[in-house]
Amino acid sequence: MENSPKNKPLIELPPAPHYEIRLKSFEFWRDSFLIFWLFSFVGHLMEYVWLFVLWEFGAPPDWQNIPFFVIAAPYGFGALAILWFIYPKIVKHDLKVFDSFILSAIATTIIEFLSALAVVIVLGHNPYWDYSDQPFNLFGFVCLRNSVAFGLVSLLFVYILFPYTAIVFRKLGSVRLNYMFWFLFIPYILIQIGRFFYGDAAIG
């Protein structure tokens, strides 16, 4: 009776022991960086997709505020926040989809706010996004529309993208993951140094 199709959960989540916070583990930081890089890059692509959608609906896209081939770090940090603090709760406490949405929306909104604050502190202003013209915004850093959107996208991450990513990581094995880490980490650090001293124009 327990194995009948009727009693099978709609969404099955694999356990995530490999992504528990283990600050002294190289594997933890390696996998965290790979997750960060992957979903930062995916977020960067999403920015272009969103501008194409706006373009199709007649809104003038602001292409210049998206630097060429620079991964969007807030998306990566948002993915890590969900992976470290929310995904384990979903697995352990079997949270409902709506509860997962609320927690993810809160986490990603906090990440976006802190990211905007950091940009303003470093550059004096935020040239990348400004929600001042949106209802229910806070200092132009975050707004309700994007919080809802991020919460919905986070469900895709939690229930589909991350479980498949974890499966791929297990199949790749530690040696290949190490190669991937160094192959991506060193150029990423060099790019960030270049951006700090020369701005986004230095890398395209």
- Tell how many strands the DSSP assignment holds: 2
Percent of residues in helices comes to 55-70%
User: What percentage of the residues does DSSP assign to strands (E)?
Assistant: under 5%
SSE-based structural type? mainly alpha
Number of helices: 4
**Uncertain ranges:** 7-11
Order of adjacent strands in the largest pleated sheet = 1-2
Distance between the termini: 60 Å
Shape from CA axes? globular
Structural domains: how many = 1
The major beta sheet can be summarized as: 2 strands, antiparallel
The Cα radius of gyration reads 19 Å
Give an account of the 3D structure:
- With 204 residues, the protein is an all-alpha fold.
- The chain has one domain (26-188).
- It is built from four helices and two strands.
- It has helices at residues 26-56, 73-93, 97-123, 144-198, and strands at residues 137-138, 142-143.
- The protein has a two-stranded antiparallel sheet with strand order 1-2.
- α2 (73-93) runs antiparallel to α3 (97-123) and α2 (73-93) packs across α4 (144-198).
- The longest helix has 55 residues, at 144-198.
- The protein is globular.
- The model is unreliable at 7-11 (pLDDT under 50).
Brief summary:
By secondary structure, the protein is mainly α. It has helices at 26-56, 73-93, 97-123, 144-198, and strands at 137-138, 142-143.
List the helices and strands and how they pair.
Blueprint: H1 26-56, H2 73-93, H3 97-123, E1 137-138, E2 142-143, H4 144-198
Antiparallel strand pairs: 1-2
Task: Write out key terms for the chains shown.
two-stranded antiparallel sheet; 204 residues; single chain; mainly alpha; 4 helices
